[in-house]
Amino acid sequence: MAGDSSPETSADLPDVCVVTHPLAAAGENATRSLLDILGAITGVALVTADLPADSEIRDRRELVELTRKGAGDSVPVAAARFLLNQLRMCRVLADRDEAVVLFFGATSYLLPILAARLLGKTVLVEPRGDVPLTLRLNWEQRMPVPLARTLAGLVRALERVGFALADGVVTYTPEMARQLGLHPEAPNVYPTGARYVRTDEFAIERPYADRDRVVGFLGRLDEEKGVRELARVAERLPDDVTFRFIGDGDLREWLEGELSEEIAAGRVELTGWVDHDDVPAQLNDLALLVLPSQPTEGLPTTILEALACGTPVLASPVSGVPDVVKEGETGFCIDSREPATLAARIESILAARDLDTVSSNGRELIASEYSFEAACARYRAILRAVGA
């Protein structure tokens, strides 16, 4: 079961073909979430590349996989495969019967977007985050900065044309739409397509008043997640506060070395990899989750899951985050990633008297607006609005 319940499929809604770019683990999770929503209200199929071999999607959804080859390390190889995948998608779409094609993350796939329009299909595009910025930051580590910015600019231009050609653009939240240069009140923008949370699994199991002073980070332990800054933060927190790194990644060994004294004293904990089924228990053990999110992310699922568990979040106010993490109401916003400033901010939050209220507000927000039923209602309204 995808969520608390599975609404009956709406017979009056068109079937949807979801098109994505090659999927890594994070993209697979977001895509599975979208397919669960659409599958509950209408027929849905997925066209993608490089789907993980053990993905649940293989057994649950109709799937067309274009290639099992990665994008490659060199820019010319990646560009060639990018073009080849688009041509393959055009051929696949010509053979599909679905009236709606939803490009999820693949917002710069201009050729299949154009082909779908020419085939008379209704086209929706839904960014998962700021892909051109993500690519630019990645490419700047591998090539001269001017070249990286030029290439990312080309991808940005392709994405903007894709937005213009589409019948509708779906974003997670209104603020995400603004940060992508879209007006959330424009007639072809649908700014409330955020993912859902399994509110039966992610729930308050441990009352907030019973939680210890444990502050945590949950995610990949790598550079882009701000893990090095968080290590410096953990060193500065009072002895009665424990900082817990939940997850695994390239910086695991570095953390073990840098924070060896704090780990030995019990002031820092590293859990290693945690299965997703065990994440609710981890979140219920925290008094505060700290996520210095990158501007590349649309709306981290971890934030929604934490709030569902009644765990206040301290996060960077980027993309769709401010629509969910509302200062002093459902969470708190990071105004500086400088370690001393961030550590002081954490201390002040933990000393606040109204954290019980913040905890319950977060849960209420998720239960009312980000449940499975609420997500199905949003996408049902979007499909009806585009008039497919």
UniProtKB/TrEMBL annotation:
InterPro entries listed in its UniProt record: Glyco_trans_1, Glycosyltransferase_grp1
Record's protein name: Glycosyltransferase family 4 protein
Coiled-coil ranges from the UniProt annotation: none
Limits of the Glycosyl transferase family domain: 209-355
Domain of life: Archaea
Source organism: Haloarcula onubensis
